[in-house]
Amino acid sequence: MKPALFALAVLLAPVAAVAQSAAMEPAVLRQTVDQFLQVQTAGLPGKVTVAVGNIDQRMKLAACPAPEAFLMPGSKAWGKTTVGVRCTAPSPWTVYIQATVSVLGNYIAASTPLSQGQPILETQLVTMQGDLATLPASIATDKAQVIGRTSNVSISAGTPLRLDTLRSKPVVQMGQQVKLVSSGAGFRVSAEGKAVGNAADGQVVQVRTPGGQNVSGIARAGGLVEVAF
């Protein structure tokens, strides 16, 4: 080896050794997971607290300038979860880190027993506070989401209310005289009819016309049914 090349190799040897021995800091992994979960839960109604699990100090991962966090398909960003962190360069690796995400916020519960099919009144509701991450995703967080709706089942006092078990207040009821309306570019047609069933706003309902024909349309407030022709 030429003297100049030998000298250069001697100078670069310590740098190469340092680069080879550089390892990913556990603190950086924890920060990556924490920031990722903070972003994922930014829209949740409540105060979010992220607790990242311990990382095995014996695990040696090559240093990564841009670690990327991700969730496995079907995983949630709240409650007890697992976040993946991967590196694509200079040395590819993937590691999975456990975390717990708590969401302290308000939710709506029944203050008195609620009967199936009966419209829910504000006096029958109470606002409570707890970890929303431990409750169903469809939990009601505002009384306005519940008032006037009916439950598919009887509910005991103290039970959190789930929106997926509640029916919206009907805007069209069976036997009600309604107005069938259809509109388009430059025209609007209307006719009278009688609702064959109950329907909330936006739901499909059948209407019997004076001629005995059944027509399906979208129920709207004010006794209107929108029909597409």
UniProtKB/TrEMBL annotation:
It comes from Pseudoduganella flava. Residues 1-19 form the signal peptide. The lineage of its organism: Bacteria, Pseudomonadati, Pseudomonadota, Betaproteobacteria, Burkholderiales. One of its GO terms (biological process) is bacterial-type flagellum assembly. Gene3D superfamilies: 2.30.30.760, Antifreeze-like/N-acetylneuraminic acid synthase C-terminal domain (3.90.1210.10). The gene is flgA. It comes from the Bacteria. This is Flagella basal body P-ring formation protein FlgA. It is found in: Periplasm. GO terms for cellular component: periplasmic space. Keywords: Bacterial flagellum biogenesis, Cell projection, Cilium, Flagellum, Periplasm, Signal. The keyword Signal applies. Transmembrane segments: none annotated.
